[in-house]
């Protein structure tokens, strides 16, 4: 009985302690205050009147796209130079980059093929002389009744075939680059057009094969008009159209701007770079543009779009994002992310997203950001 009373007393003490602890916890919870989270996009300054506020405007502007390019010859004005006869190069009269005239000698080749052609020509020449004599003899004998008319006809046929063989051999010599009246195994390779040698694949004493299994000896290009080939990424192709104008600036002539027009947009993308070739055509009558020159190209669309514009000073770049400040009253400004477009060159910047015409913003974002940091 004494044990039961003691146990009951201990239980009462435990319950009393728990009750006091619960009341203390409830009292502490009643005194807790939850502060609202601060909006980090809102900044507050002491003197908001110091910051000029302007309205976003709207303009009709043409899309611009800046890409890199390289000056290249116009392939329609480039002519490969080949030798139709194989042999060995004896002398080279022109080199890569030289300006040549039509008919100018480029190199000399000693050719076994031409020697064989001359050999056949001399044989056919002798056969033709013999067949002509045989025909004259047959005609004389026929006039005296010594042979039948059939013999004369056979002699005439032989003579005609000999003439055909002789003319064929003569023409073959000319095709290979020789001259029938000047027997020689050497022949000259001449320039088919006037222009600049933009490719050379032959050296002195090199062996020259037939055209079907050898590269061009030279390539001569007329550089009075040239191409500028640009690499445009696939996500920018919608901004480029046939006929669009483009300004071309070259590292060699940094103070000059050349005008070009888009003449072709490739339908095939480079699988490695995901770019398409866009071709411009430029006049080069002065000859100052050379193949291989690096070019910076700015495409300008012919179609204008109505876009929101703001002063360039209203934008600030933070954390790889463009921002503007919009007033919210009570010396408060809200930082708003925008998608900035190209600069217009007169102190204004296109805004592609994040603002609408008429929206009020601070004209000098950097000034406001600096004042915020100091406060």
Mind sketching the topology for me?
Blueprint lengths: L1 H29 L11 E3 L8 E3 L1 E17 L4 E4 L5 E6 L6 E2 L4 E6 L1 H32 L5 H28 L9 E5 L4 E6 L6 E2 L9 E4 L3 E9 L11 E6 L2 E13 L9 E9 L10 E18 L4 E3 L2 E9 L2 E12 L4 E6 L6 E3 L2 H10 L1
Antiparallel strand pairs: 1-19, 2-21, 3-12, 3-16, 4-11, 5-7, 5-10, 6-9, 7-8, 9-11, 12-15, 13-14, 13-16, 14-15, 16-20, 17-18, 18-19, 19-20
Helix pairs in contact: 2-3
Short description:
With 375 residues, this protein is of the alpha+beta class. It has 4 helices and 21 strands. Strand 18 (321-329) and strand 19 (332-343) form a beta hairpin.
Description:
The chain has 375 residues and is α+β, with helices and mostly antiparallel strands. It folds into four domains: 43-59 and 305-374, Beta Barrel (conserved putative lor/sdh protein from methanococcus maripaludis s2 fold); 67-75 and 223-304, Efflux pump adaptor protein, beta barrel domain (Elongation Factor Tu (Ef-tu), domain 3, Beta Barrel); 85-111 and 185-222, OB fold (Dihydrolipoamide Acetyltransferase, E2P) (Beta Barrel), CATH 2.40.50.100; 112-183, Orthogonal Bundle (Helix Hairpins). The protein is 26% helix and 39% strand. It has four helices and 21 strands. It has helices spanning 2-30, 112-143, 149-176, 365-374; strands at 42-44, 53-55, 57-73, 78-81, 87-92, 99-100, 105-110, 186-190, 195-200, 207-208, 218-221, 225-233, 245-250, 253-265, 275-283, 294-311, 316-318, 321-329, 332-343, 348-353, 360-362. A six-stranded antiparallel barrel has the order 3-12-15-14-13-16. Strand 13 (245-250) and strand 14 (253-265) form a beta hairpin. Helix 2 runs antiparallel to helix 3 (149-176). The longest helix is centred in the middle third of the chain and has 32 residues, at 112-143. The relative contact order is 0.19. Residues 1-6 and 22-37 have low confidence and may be disordered.
